Amino acid sequence: MTQQYPIGTPGKPWKDAEKKEWFEQQRKQRDYSNDVIRRIDHLREQFDVETYGELNYDGRSFPLFVVRSRNWHVDRPTVLVTGGVHGYETSGVHGALYFLETEAVNHLSRFNILVAPCISPWGYETINRWNPDAVDPNRSFVEDSPAQETALIMNYLAKHKIAPCVHVDLHETTDTDNSEFRPALAARNGTTNDNWNIPDGFYLVADSSRQEPEFQRAIIETVKPVTHIAPPDDSGCLIGAPMVQEGVIEYDARPLGLCMGMTDAKFVTTTEVYPDSPNTNPVECVDAQVAAVRGALEYAAGKC
Q: In which domain of life is the source organism classified (predicted)?
């Protein structure tokens, strides 16, 4: 199904005027300070909290935070958890925070833990996939990144020589992917949009260049008691990609500029939950994200 977007001319990529028109239509719908920073501040008693940068958009400042193990050991394997690369994907942000509030303490004796709970705070507030420049942060984890959001977290990891063994990137696939974000992408690029079937349930996107099928399977098995796993469509696919095992598809992360491709972690995955399913709810979606991280760490313990 194709859908014409209300900004721009079909077949012609956006220029600065169209991007400005798009930006001016965006509105704040929730509060980063109250929803995210407040919870991060409550973690300071148990973890170290660092500001790794600041975004300044439309006269507003958005400080960026990582939360990390207080007793960092250079000889201990490191786990990186990222959330809110796409700011609109709510359970990614709140799953990262809830992992820190509940589950992380159980793994501090085996891993250094580093969590970036909300990489795209403007996207969180405006419920957007893109940043204000109409750039998708999760296609921008590349050298000389066009997105400040991605450049700042990549610079932080490089500056501190952080080389994680495990990286779990927390995402969602929502109905708005078809109603808003894919049509907007096609309009911005001057191409034709073809919507995909939204998978009903949890699934993983693995990196095809670092195939660790047992790692992916362990996460799926840990999530199963929490929420349902997405079945394949009639073509055996999820979001247009062949399902390589139950609940798992693969992308080649680095050429696509995906967050899961920004490190050389041996064990890497991107989670996807479907919050619009009639078979789940917001609490279950957050719990599924935490279960995914737990499954990843339980599998990787002793293997890094």
A: Bacteria
